[in-house]
Amino acid sequence: MLIGIVGKPNVGKSTLFKAATLAEVEIANRPFTTIKPNEGVGFVRVDCAEKNFNVKCNPRQGFCIDGQRFVSVKLMDVAGLVPGAHLGKGLGNKFLADLVRADVLIHVVDISGSTDEEGKSVEPGSYDPAKDVKFVEAELDKWFFSLLKENWSKFVRHALTLTSDKALHEQFSGFKITLDQVVKALKISKLGGKKLLHWTDDDISAFASSIRKMAKPVIIAANKIDLPNAKSNVAKLKKEFSDYLVVPCSAESELALREASKNNLIKYIPGDNKFDVLKSEKLTEQQKKALEFIQNKILKIWDGTGIQQCLNAATFEFLKYIVIFPGGVHKLSDSEGRVLPDAFLLPPSSTAYDFAAKIHSDLAKHFVAAIDVKTKRKIGRDAELKNLDVIEIMTSK
Which of 23, 77, 100, 394 could form a disulfide with 40 if both were Cys (CB 3.0 to 4.6 A apart)? Predict the structure, then answer.
């Protein structure tokens, strides 16, 4: 699973990426700071299984704070997008090619309206953030349209030997698009019974838009909520785009909190609406004022910085992934004594057998059954797992 971070230049994409990953990336107040995509590891937040067994976990990957487990996810911050990207404007072709691998997109918008359509700084409030949502949606739709329209005649001739849904599924084989999604997109665009040979450009456009929304769902990260006009613009955006999830965000605040936590100056659990100062004497006056500002103007007003909410929403609300812990009925630790060391992200409807294969191919090869450790009940290979299950795999070896 890969979460793509998108948006026009200079809106805080790289700041959000760094806040989520603490990776070293270049952040600057100018367009096209990001040329090549930055890839890193962020974390989603769930209740740790340690709560069910009155133990303290010791994660091999990720971390756990006060019973909140952070499970790794892959993130990608791509080059900035500007109107006309599908025609190659800016770094458009590069941007769109990078997006092929993403399962869900977080679209970072400057909600203060202080950057124009090309990412240049302007007076706060002088630009309408709604324009960014519209143009990114349009660019993605046009990109999908161009992928179908290019060599359309050749594609249609090839498709004569296949049904429309299978031909279109094959055409988008590299985009993580399922046959079921193609069938649904055909139904939504009312093209299920129309032969590809008779499709018009409007038909291609309608299908492209439908399949894009399913294949690359978008969350809007309304960034820079600390600046003037942000509150009213968030309200306007939520009203105008009621079918989107709009999350108020402050990437700069999240980055500051995570850096302070990393240096043991504060205790902060990502996603919380508060933090505790640990070493006040080591804070400069400037740092104290910054933390006070974040607490009073961001966390109290907006109930958090929004960054963790974006990652969790992308993973659990949009992609419907689940977190499964390996464990044993009689032993929750591994061979090195680490308690509940692992937590795996699996796609929806994953079975006990799928989980075994995720851990190691040998476990799948010799799979016999599994045990729900919480209930101590044996389950079969085709039993669908639930979020936060703890599962023991039984094998013939």
Answer: 23
DSSP string, 199-211: --HHHHHHHHHHH
Class of 2-37+78-240 in CATH: mainly alpha
Q: Give the tens place of pLDDT for each residue, 306-350.
A: 999 999 999 999 999 999 999 999 999 998 999 999 999 999 999
Q: Are 205 and 221 within 8 A, CB to CB?
A: no
Tens digit of each residue's pLDDT (9 = 90 or more) over 52-103: 999 999 999 999 999 999 999 999 998 677 666 555 544 445 666 778 889 9
**Cα-Cα-Cα-Cα dihedral of 96, 99, 100, 102, to 10°?**
-170
Q: Where are the domains of the chain?
A: 2-37+78-240, 318-395
pLDDT in tens, 218-266: 999 999 999 989 999 999 999 999 999 999 999 999 999 999 999 999 9
Instruction: Report the amino acid identity of residue 173.
Output: S
CA 157 to chain centre: 37
Q: Hey, what amino acid is at 60?
A: R
Report the C-alpha gap between 270 and 43 in whole angstroms: 9
Three-state secondary structure call for residue 358 = helix
Q: Looking at the domain covering 318-395, what would its CATH class be?
A: alpha beta
| Neighbouring-strand partners of residue 266 | 277
Whether 118 and 30 have beta carbons less than 8 Å apart is answered as: no
- What residue spans of the chain are helical by DSSP H? 13-21, 50-53, 92-99, 130-149, 152-159, 164-171, 179-188, 201-215, 230-240, 251-262, 285-293, 300-302, 307-312, 352-359, 361-365
Q: What spatial distance separates the first Cα and last Cα of the chain, rounded to whole Å? A: 31
pTM for this prediction: 0.90
- The DSSP secondary structure of 277-340, one letter per residue, reads ES-GGGS-HHHHHHHHHIIIIIIHHHSS-SHHHHHHIIIIIIS--EEEEE--SS--B-TT--BS
Which residue in this structure is represented by tokens 């699973």? 1
Tokens 């001739």: give the residue: 157
